[in-house]
Amino acid sequence: MSTHSGTAPRPVVVPDVDSLVSRYVTPGMHLHLAMTMARPNAMVYALARQFAGRGEFTVSTSATHTAMHALTMSGAVKHLITCFLGDTYPTPRPNPLYRDLVRGTPFSCELWSLLSFTQRLMAGATGLPYAVTSSLVGSDLERGLTAQAPDAERPGAGAKFLRMAEPAAGERPFALVERLRPDLTLVHGACADRRGNIVLVPPAGEGPWAAYAAEQGVIATVERIVPDGFVDAHPERVVIPGQRVLALCEAPLGAHPQSLRGVATGDGSGDVAGYRDDYAFLTELVERLATEDGAKEWYREWVEEPAGHAQYVQKLGAARRAELALYATPLTPREPPAPPPLPASAEPVTRAERTVVLGARAIVEQVTNGAYDTLLAGIGVSHLAAWLAAALLRERGIRVPVCAELGFYATDPEPGDVFLFSQLHATRSQQLGGIPEILGGMVSANPRCLGVLAAGEVDADGNVNTSLLADGRWLTGSGGANDIATSTDCLVLSTASPRKFVERVAYVTSPGARVREVVSHFGRFRRTQDATGAPGPFRLATWLPPGDDGPARPQDAVASLTRWPVSSAGCAPEPEVTEAEIAWLRSLDPQGFYR
């Protein structure tokens, strides 16, 4: 018999975002910024306005980009726990704010991979001290976390990452990762009722785990507060229950400049208009943050001058808001796109395009041979290669699902939208899940998944660096790349140069033991295997003369465009890029971001 009586208190509904933040956030807190497709960006701006230079926050968030740059510039963050720092649009790239990250500027930082980060939240959410992961093992991410162990006299005591004993034969190495328990989790949802029940629309990213992991609970913004009756009629749409929510407020466009999928009920009781990523805003943000003066002016204009979220939205203007509107796609079967028409006169094929096409050919070959039935597309030239390969395979009557780490399964990309995580692609997917489903179920637990990754640096052992250059400059970090490379076979793409194809990477973000091919613009390096099936050295297996007065012989290309000590003997000729291949590719990337 229960000893409790009465009902749980309803969360407080406050009038605006700045009131929500000022009432519930205090300096020194550990704040978690929930990683869903709709980030809590209105609250991020409010944090920057109110706590500039004095927050001393520990912040955990799986990716540090877009509006999070404002919080970085505010000086309110003392310590950051994350997986990625940089920009994602129009292409993934470093951001100068984090150039000196390794030196503790602009804050101290703890680096993880996307799945291991989410597993830490899952441990915190389920009351466990640790989670089990196979990620990070053998990488410099592991070495960095091990070096931060607080008790050198007792190895493993209080460690954030603890490698376990050698696994049984045939099993992957694994480790324990310390749970993550923030004080508060900040969430932006599609809608909520006044009882605090929050509707999140997939792709779910980290889903509800950070809401359950938070010691004090959740503060939330939503596009709309709906009648309680809507939730009573649609309980399956609630992802975060009201018991976890301390307070909430309405904040239309609260995820801007990122996106939000809407909610349609038919009777209008819970309808919420969705909106797309604001590509013009994101492009301008990248351009202005390229210089110190530009960054200061952007911060003044978009963070300091608006008195609150309402003024921020008003500044965007009605025309811009209308352009971003995302309308629901009718639930009718869709036919796969027809091959695009061949261009009457095409621009010369670039090195990046050659790399993508050769990568797509490698994927087609692997899938056609029956080795793999699922593709995991990393962001960059890698996801373009995966999309192109899927289109070429469809022409052969073979369908292979292409997945992306935030929760996209079997995506048929919207032509002309090159951003991997676009909401337009979400509406053209067969399933929308989250990080555990994709990086866990579809990758780590699926031996027939082929990961497709890009690289800042790649060495002759297949190790990939997307983190730190030898001169101390920060790149971007792992994201989900380490999770993929440590658990499934991979193909790596990069245009070749001595700066990228290095003898030894400066930082092992993703170990190379499971890299089967490395694709350049002049050919494909394929890994040999010994009699036991163990991975051996790479060799140049195919050759496509680069033209433009480039090396005329494969051995010369390897010598001048890489620092790899590998053989080119016996490499097969790679057919020239066809008009059909380039037409497909340019239909996916008409703006030429990846040229």
Tags for this model:
595 residues, alpha/beta, ten-stranded mixed β-sheet, seven-stranded mixed β-sheet, 18 helices, 29 strands, 28% helix, 20% strand, globular, disordered N terminus
- Euclidean distance between termini CA atoms: 68 Å
Output the structural class: alpha/beta
Q: Identify low-pLDDT runs.
A: 1-5, 151-157, 328-333
How many strand units?
29
Q: Work out the helicity level.
A: 25-40%
Number of helices: 18
Rg estimate, integer Å: 24 Å
Tell me the β content: 15-25%
- Average pLDDT across residues? 92
Structure summary:
The chain is built from 18 helices and 29 strands. By secondary structure, the chain is an alpha/beta fold.
Describe the secondary-structure layout.
Elements: E1 12-13, H1 17-24, E2 30-33, H2 41-51, E3 57-60, H3 68-74, E4 77-82, E5 108-111, H4 114-125, E6 130-133, H5 140-147, E7 161-163, E8 175-178, E9 184-192, E10 198-199, H6 209-213, E11 217-225, H7 228-233, E12 238-240, E13 245-250, E14 274-275, H8 279-288, H9 292-304, H10 309-316, H11 318-323, E15 325-326, H12 351-368, E16 374-377, H13 381-395, E17 402-403, E18 408-411, H14 423-426, E19 429-432, H15 435-444, E20 449-454, E21 457-459, E22 464-465, H16 481-485, E23 489-493, E24 501-502, E25 515-519, E26 524-529, E27 535-540, E28 542-543, H17 554-561, E29 572-573, H18 579-588
Parallel strand pairs: 1-13, 2-3, 2-9, 3-4, 4-5, 9-11, 11-13, 16-17, 16-20, 20-23, 21-24, 23-25, 28-29
Antiparallel strand pairs: 6-8, 7-8, 9-10, 10-12, 14-15, 18-19, 21-22, 25-26, 26-27
